Amino acid sequence: MAQLTVDIGGSPGINCRGYCEYCYFRKVRGVQPLGCRYCLPFKKGCDYCTRGVKEEYSGFKDLKTIADETLANLQTKQGDLSRVTISGGGDPSCYPRFCELIELLGSMDAPLHIGYTSGKGWDDPKIADLLIENGLSEISFTVFATDPELRTKYMHDPTPGASLAILEKLCGAVDVYAAAVVLPGVNDGDVLEDTCRWLQERGAKGLILMRFANNADQGLILGNGPVMETQNVQSAESFRDLITDLSKKFTMKISGTPLWDPELGSPFAIRHEPDLIAKLPRVLRRASVISGSIATPFIGTILSACGSKVPVVPVKKEIACLITADDIRTLDLSVLEPSVIIPGRAFIHDAEAEEILSRDGTKRSVIRGPDMLTADAETSMGMTREQVLEMEMDGFTRLIWTINQFGNE
């Protein structure tokens, strides 16, 4: 079975009827290339870490271009299509020829999946019928709150009633995974419980809650913090407790990012499975593993159980895959081994990382670890616990192999 992704292009804030108040891409400045795994060894900066990370596209693609690209991609696939996913830098609901796009993709007789939409571009409730008739099977829908006034104020949705009517109909016909960034004092508390109740009563499969990020340590890497000057932010632990409490009150699946999925026990569900940890390779060499402040204690516990004697080293940045060169500049180099493993998706140029981590006179080698060690809520929402554990077994096996290959005796 084959899957097809249809990229419609577009840019945040431009092709989505304007930024939401809390949008990660608001206030992005002209940041220099960050460096990443795709950069050439001798050059910091590539298309991904200069343009792609900002989702900086020229605009929506025209329908003919999308049709031509889809046909070309189809010719590379073998077997029946199991899914067609619509994605892009802009919001699909704001695509100017959305109805024609859906009819075009619906003619392929494969389940359609919309990877993200705010619904802000839909002004006519009949859109729901169009989607259902053309084979929509799954959609990720940013709801923020089911209070229309809050959607208007914080999402700048000009027709919140229509958006919610479409969401309501889709909840009863397809797999709907709603999403909301939680702003303390705005859409939490009773408002959030009302939103959960509304979604559950209408048949949504789940709700992914995202903790609001407002500064660099929480994950802003584009020079754009604070996104909202006076908005409070929850700690990761407080946010985890919020998810736990809500999951006890509702039968609909509720999970959060960066923490956590109560149903599956992720991220790092494997830490509760000693029999699986026993099947992981043993750590035979010494290497320093650098990670974000949230993941570090989990990774340290698992590697220690596999025989590691070297503590995992945290940076102040909470999210591991958003670590940049600035984060590792503040590390105490005296605690680092000659071999240092950084997250596979960290936004650092390898040569620059080696220079930064060797500035005390000790030559250190920097190696990228696996891209993923676990599944956050956005990934785990559609997974079983067995699938999450399989992902974690694979990730930690690769990490330990990397330690044993590049570490010191």
Beta-strand content: 5-15%
| Count of extended strands | 11
CATH-defined architecture of the largest domain? Alpha-Beta Barrel
Q: How many domains is the backbone divided into?
A: 2
Please outline the major beta sheet: 7 strands, parallel
Summing up helix and strand content along with how strands pair, one would put the structural category as alpha/beta
Number of helices: 14
Q: How is the largest sheet built, in terms of strand order?
A: 1-2-3-4-5-6-7
| Separation, N- and C-terminal Cα atoms | 45 Å
C-alpha Rg (nearest Å) = 22 Å
CATH fold name of the largest domain: TIM Barrel
The backbone outline, from C-alpha atoms, is: globular
Helix amount, in percent? Answer: 25-40%
CATH class of the largest domain: Alpha Beta
Q: Mean of residue pLDDT?
A: 95
Low-confidence stretches: none
| Order of helical and strand elements | EHHEHEHEHHEHEHEHEHEHEHEHH
How are the elements arranged and paired?
Elements lengths: L1 E6 L39 H4 L12 H12 L6 E7 L10 H9 L5 E6 L9 H7 L2 E7 L5 H8 L4 H12 L3 E8 L6 H14 L3 E6 L24 H14 L3 E5 L16 H6 L8 E4 L4 H10 L7 E2 L10 H4 L10 E4 L7 H8 L7 E4 L8 H4 L4 H22 L3
Helix pairs in contact: 3-4, 4-6
Question: If you had to describe this structure to a student in words, what would you say it looks like?
Answer:
- The chain is α/β, with parallel strands linked by helices.
- The protein folds into two domains: 256 residues, Aldolase class I (TIM Barrel, Alpha-Beta Barrel), CATH 3.20.20; 138 residues, Rossmann fold.
- It is 33% helix and 14% strand.
- It is built from 14 helices and eleven strands.
- The strands form two sheets. The protein has a seven-stranded parallel β-sheet. The chain has a four-stranded parallel β-sheet with strand order 9-8-10-11, sandwiched between helices.
- Helix 7 links the parallel strand 5 and strand 6.
- Helix 3 packs parallel to helix 4.
- The longest helix has 22 residues.
- It is globular, with a radius of gyration of 22 Å.
- The mean pLDDT is 95.
